[in-house]
From TrEMBL:
GO terms for biological process: organic acid catabolic process. Its EC number is 1.1.1.411. Keywords: Carbohydrate metabolism, NAD, NADP, Oxidoreductase. Residues 7-165 form the 6-phosphogluconate dehydrogenase NADP-binding domain. This is L-threonate dehydrogenase. Signal peptide: none annotated. The active site is at 175. PANTHER family: 3-HYDROXYISOBUTYRATE DEHYDROGENASE-LIKE 1, MITOCHONDRIAL-RELATED (PTHR43060), L-THREONATE DEHYDROGENASE (PTHR43060:SF17). It catalyses: L-threonate + NAD(+) = 2-dehydro-L-erythronate + NADH + H(+). The keyword rRNA processing does not apply. The keyword GTP-binding does not apply. GO terms for molecular function: NAD binding; NADP binding; oxidoreductase activity, acting on the CH-OH group of donors, NAD or NADP as acceptor.
Length: 302
């Protein structure tokens, strides 16, 4: 197994930022690319090498992690002008960490492999706190060679790597199912907290009870706290679930599966986005339900 020491992270949002810092802590030389100058400056302060283009980030990298928002952005940062493929060396490993439709992941992976690259379909889960501590979950699929070459990077950024197949695609399929559950659980959390507020229940008390009871979920524990504190600083934005639940419902329709709960949750996220909440924390869907219910949540002006 070849040990890798040079990594590049394209997209320094909450998850990409956590991965980049985890790699730095593990002793990697890390180049980070982002469109935001203030993020690049902060990355340099933390010991990374800031890059303004994917091409400059990809130079000399053994492994390139892609953490942009959607498949269109993945195509742009890989194959577009000043894209990573312009400078990446043959047999560089690309970790595709963006949540995409499985069909999009497969097409992008095939294009990379035809250019002599190795690919791991590697969507991630766990939230920004676990990303910062290098404890995310990776739902991965790819060739044994790609896994071997990327093993040190995967060890640095994750607590658990599920190897789901020897070709790109299964990783994105499993992440799609995860996002179905995550989106529905966020919507259910928003509904539960709004009902509690309308009924006059103290939300902090309710949160403390439910989080240790059978009705809890990881999303309730995480997003419920956001609602209780009235903190809608975006860790994962409303618009992310417009995209992800859109993938779920489109893929379900293509195979003839019924996803009524995902469809209802998607409608709520879309309504929140159209109301101007798209860049707020995804727990902000509770604001839509609260307004319709005639109740006021913590931190929200009446």
């Amino acid at each position: 197994m070849q040990h890798t020491t040079k990594a590049a992270v394209i997209g320094l949002g909450s998850m990409g930022w956590g991965a980049a810092l985890s790699l730095l802590k593990a002793g990697f030389a890390v180049r980070g690319c982002d469109v935001r100058g203030e993020v690049l400056a902060r990355f340099a302060e933390n010991g990374g090498t800031p890059c303004t283009t994917p091409a400059s980030a990809a130079e000399d990298a053994d492994v390139i992690l892609v953490y942009v928002v959607n498949s269109k952005q993945v195509e742009d940062v890989l194959f577009g002008e000043n894209g990573a493929l312009e400078t990446a060396r043959p047999a560089t490993v690309f970790l595709l960490c963006t949540t995409m439709a499985p069909s999009a992941t497969t097409a992008i992976a095939e294009k990379l492999e035809s250019s002599g690259m190795l690919v791991v379909d590697a969507p991630v889960s766990g939230g920004h706190v676990r990303a910062l501590s290098g404890e995310i979950t990776v739902m991965a699929s790819g060739t044994p060679e790609a896994f071997d070459r990327a093993s040190a990077v995967l060890d640095a950024i994750s607590a658990k790597v599920f190897r789901l197949g020897d070709r790109p695609g299964p990783g994105s399929q499993v992440k799609m199912i995860n996002q179905l559950l995550a989106g529905v659980h966020i919507a259910a959390t928003a509904e539960a907290m709004t009902l509690a507020a309308k009924a006059g229940i103290d939300l902090k008390t309710l949160y403390d009870v439910i989080r240790v009871s059978a009705g809890s979920s990881w999303m309730f524990e995480n997003r419920g706290e956001h609602i209780v504190s009235g903190d809608y600083t975006p860790r994962s934005a409303v618009n992310i679930f417009v995209k992800d639940l859109g993938i779920v419902t489109a893929e379900a329709n293509s195979v003839g599966a019924l996803t009524p709960l995902a469809a209802t949750a998607l409608d709520l996220f879309m309504e929140a986005s159209q109301a101007g909440l798209g860049l707020e924390d995804d727990a902000a869907v509770a604001k839509i339900l609260a307004a319709k219910s005639g109740t006021i949540l913590p931190g929200v002006k009446g």
